[in-house]
Amino acid sequence: MQRILSNQVNDLVGKSVMMQGWAQTVRAHAKVVFIDLRDRTGLTQLVITGELVEQAKGITNESVITINGTVTERPQSLINANIASGKVEVQVKEVSVETVAEPLPFPLTEEKVSEEVRLKYRYLDIRRKKLSDNLRARSAANEFIRTFLLKKDFVEVETPYISKSTPEGARDYLVPSRIEPGKFYALPQSPQQYKQLLMVAGLERYFQIARCFRDEDSRGDRQPEFTQLDLEMSFTNRDEVMELIEDLFTSLVKKLFPEKAFTFDRFPRLKYADTIKEYNSDKPDLRKDKSNDDELAFAFVVDFPLFEWKESEKRYDATHHPFTSPTPEFEDNFEKKPKEALSLQYDLVLNGSEIAGGSIRIHKPEVLERVFSFMGHSKEGIQAKFGHLLEAFRYGVPPHGGIAPGLDRLYTILLKEESIRDVIAFPKTGDGHDLLMNAPSDVDEAQLKELGLQLRPKK
Ligand code: ASP
To answer: What is the pTM of this model?
Structure first.
């Protein structure tokens, strides 16, 4: 018999059905047992009477069961509008227990469960409606983004996760090489260089829902790995990139979050210097009513300084990343005017959070080389780190630019969650631990040996 789901039974009064799922609650009376059966679509009330009662009384909460039964209408007074199958119940004729559940570490109905426990038992936390709804909303939003961009002629390309360091200003996660002991891959801080190489390759429009890896010290809402909508376009300019993102996010919100109100009809473009002067921040919260979390104040910030002074290293560093183009008036003289030089960077802010950064890139190899060397890289250093990109740029590179919205943060705001962990299936703690898998963890001596690694004694 075909399995019937909770959201289908309302229409099947009088029919025999087979259903499968979790016994969310088992309420036993002397002569009747009620079970709320949960499947991916919701709950169905099962009614068990007669000779099955004794067996049903032994079913523990959260055990997985299969039943056969008949759908009957509920008496008018017992109709429950809150559940998908609220007009009916199922009179059980046969029940079998697929797997018995032991008592759970926390009741699924309990609201006040510490985050530590929720993360250790994430698979139980996801059984709860709030988290599973968030994951479904995330999936629907990702699908919207994909469809939107594919319609506009973008190509979705996966780029390597085991690769070489790309400078985005954070520490790299390193992966030791077994084939060449003593050498390392790095997990990408973003697909930045690959997407630029795809522009050299002639794809013209690329996107990817990509994982990025940055080994940063814990700061509230950061995750060691996070997800970006990474995209890049050739023969473009900053207005075109900003308009594309504005169009994408406006239509996504209208379709999937129709309850939201936009503070501005069009996303304003604010100059960095003005924003700092007026709000003392480059990610101002521009909502008219900050207590209303259904209000969305998107805005772009533009005209960032090209460089920022790094006191600890006594050198200039790129404000965004070294591939970002200066504005045309500073292309020839940024070395002489490093403090004044502006760049073609743009950030997207939403309700006080930075949710995207991007730029028009330097596509002239000689300008790129000058930026690297101004930032303090030696000729050999440039060759070792970026030689592949500079060489690629010598074979015909189109002008190009892109952006990378951070999807975890965007979805957190849209779903009105406190923490980005609530929109990620298996997040790490604020200090980078995976409590479920218990990572990071020790590895075997043999694994280290194979990699040519030896641990220093702990101090
Ligand atoms: N790779 C950049 C980042 O991760 C985004 C971009 O410039 O497109 O911030």
So the answer is: 0.95
